[in-house]
Design brief:
With about 550 residues, the chain is an alpha+beta fold. The chain is built from 11 helices and 19 strands. About 45% of the residues lie in helices and about 20% in strands.
């Protein structure tokens, strides 16, 4: 076997060495001719060797069939009676030799592995034998243990059975108790349902009574409808009297529907909400400011096609006087309201509008006459009385209250924004807590250079108890765009680099207190019609009235 294995290895290695030698001659030394010559001579030599000892090889064929020289020339040794061709005989001999060589190599390579596996199997047998001995030991130990503790287990089993019986009896007792409890619960539920049905019955009776009362109220309402005309006439009569200010406050803001048409210089027509600061009407009246206000709570009146709030003043040719729209004989209450209202501040204090049948002149936001130099003084005195219950003691301002666009307000969210960015409905900080913005005013004013507001602002800085105007500035003034707000509380917090504190809104006295000033305004307008320069008596009576209506 060893000889066959050695011959097999030589049979494989010899051709490989021979081929490597030929390739070395060819590639290394570029002697392809010599390599071919050696290859040919080798084949001839092998052929001659085979021919010389054919009989000897055939006699010992099984032992020598895989020798290298015989493997190459196997076709020479085919027996005469073998039906295969010489090529088939040589090919089958080559396959046989290769298979034999591979089996021999694999057997030799796997011999150590087989030896190792046999050793592991011997170890496994030893381990199995040890485990069996442990099992026998465990069985012997358990048998002795059970002989000792079996009486204890039997006693424990007997005790457990008695405990189970006791537990079953206890469960039965608890079941009886649960049944009693369930019956009591059903009894209580029946009682609750009975009470509920009784309450439903009482509610039905009450609803029937309410329906009867509602029917009677509707019947009474239709019975007193004819009296409504008398009630309306009575209200109008009171409104036209000297005590009219007591009812005029129901008309609220002095504004127009935003879709009101206006005719500007040059014949251009816009809606009043499309107007801009600097636009001029046909008569030359210039728009100095625009107030946009919340209006969904304000009733509107229609006067010759113009939708306007009832408190707005309009010129009445027949009475030769300024009267509230609600008191005009041609004004009709509109059942439609507008979420936004618009009012203007003009250079002549008048707003000329074209109605369906003619032209109308309304007063602007200020309303105060321009031909009475004392009107601003008395107005400032009146506001101070209403705010502080005493005169302000400061110089009368030359401008209406306005802020530069850089002035800031504090939002409820803690955010700080410029006053020019505030919108209607926003919640900002005020002297009474947080308040909603009800209007935004944009206009022109003369600001002291480098100062954030005009001298017309009413302010209460930290530590102060009274409202007062800011100190007069001696710096030159410049005409700029400014802003102001109206709020539900009548005040809000303003913050600038120069000053900070609470300020009054654009109404100065608060929208809910404007009605107090109506009598004063109309008295001044009557004085202006007569070209009088003083209005002390009217202002004194109004100041005494305002002292009874302090503003918090």
């Amino acid at each position: 076997m060893c000889r066959f294995l050695c011959l097999s290895r030589m049979s494989i290695l010899a051709p490989l060495v021979f081929i490597a030698l030929l390739l070395t001659l060819g590639f290394r030394y570029n002697a392809w001719g010599l390599a071919l010559l050696i290859f040919g001579l080798s084949n001839v030599f092998a052929l001659l060797m085979g021919i010389s000892n054919i009989d000897a090889v055939k006699a010992d064929w099984n032992a020598r069939r895989c020798d290298l020289d015989i493997l190459v020339t196997a076709n020479l040794y085919k027996p005469a009676d073998d039906p295969r061709t010489g090529g088939e005989f040589a090919s089958e001999n080559f396959n046989f030799c290769m298979r034999s060589i591979m089996i021999s190599v694999i057997t030799t390579a796997l011999t150590p592995i087989y030896a190792l596996l046999n050793q592991q199997l011997d170890v496994a047998d030893s381990v199995a034998e040890a485990l069996n001995r442990l099992r026998a030991l465990q069985a012997s130990f358990l048998e002795g243990f059970m002989k000792i503790f079996d009486p204890v287990f039997q006693r424990f089993k007997t005790t457990g059975a008695e405990f189970a019986v006791t537990h079953h009896k206890l469960l039965m007792a608890m079941g009886r108790a649960f049944g009693i409890t369930q019956a009591s619960l059903y009894l209580g539920m029946s009682l609750v349902i009975g009470i509920e049905n009784f309450i439903h019955f009482v509610i039905r009776v009450i609803m029937i009574i309410m329906y009867i009362i509602l029917g009677l109220m509707i019947l009474i309402f239709f019975m007193i409808v004819p009296v409504f005309g008398i009630i309306i006439w009575t209200c109008q009569t009171i409104g036209n009297s000297q005590f009219g200010y007591l009812v005029d406050d129901v008309c609220g803001e002095l504004c127009f529907d935003p879709m009101t048409k206006v005719r500007l210089k040059g014949g251009k027509i816009k809606t009043i909400e499309e107007c801009e600061v600097g636009d001029s009407f046909e008569d030359g009246t210039r728009i100095e400011g625009i107030l946009s206000a919340k209006g969904d709570a304000e009733p509107l009146f229609v006067l010759d096609g113009i939708r306007v709030t009832g408190a707005h003043l309009v010129w009445n040719e027949e009475a030769n006087d300024w009267i509230a729209v609600v008191n005009h004989p041609r004004a009709v209450l509109s059942f439609q309201r507008s979420p936004r209202l618009v009012c203007l501040r003009t250079s002549t204090r008048n707003i000329p509008l074209q109605g369906l049948t003619g032209k109308w002149t309304f007063r602007d936001w200020e309303e105060l006459p321009m031909n009475l130099p004392t009107s601003d003084t008395i107005w400032d005195f009146l506001v101070s009385e209403m705010l502080n219950q005493k005169p302000s003691g400061s110089q009368v301002p030359s401008e209406h209250p306005m802020f530069r666009e850089t002035a800031c307000v504090l939002y409820k969210t803690g955010e700080v924004r410029r006053v020019s960015e505030v919108a209607i409905g926003d919640e900002i900080y005020s002297a009474e807590g947080f308040t909603k913005v009800t209007g935004v005013y944009k206009g022109e004013a003369e600001f002291p250079t480098g100062y954030p507001c005009t001298d017309g602002v009413w302010m209460k800085q930290h530590g102060e108890t009274n409202w007062a105007h800011p100190p007069l500035q001696t710096t030159p003034k410049e005409l700029l765009r400014g802003f102001h707000l109206t709020t539900e509380s009548g005040s809000f917090w303003i913050q600038t680099k120069e000053v900070s504190g609470f300020v009054r809104d654009f109404t100065e006295v608060g929208a809910h207190n404007l009605f107090v000033t109506y009598t004063y305004t109309r008295a001044l307008l009557k004085k202006s019609l007569n070209r009088e320069e003083s209005c002390v008596s009217a202002s004194s009576s109004q100041a005494s009235l305002s002292s009874s209506l302090p503003i918090s």
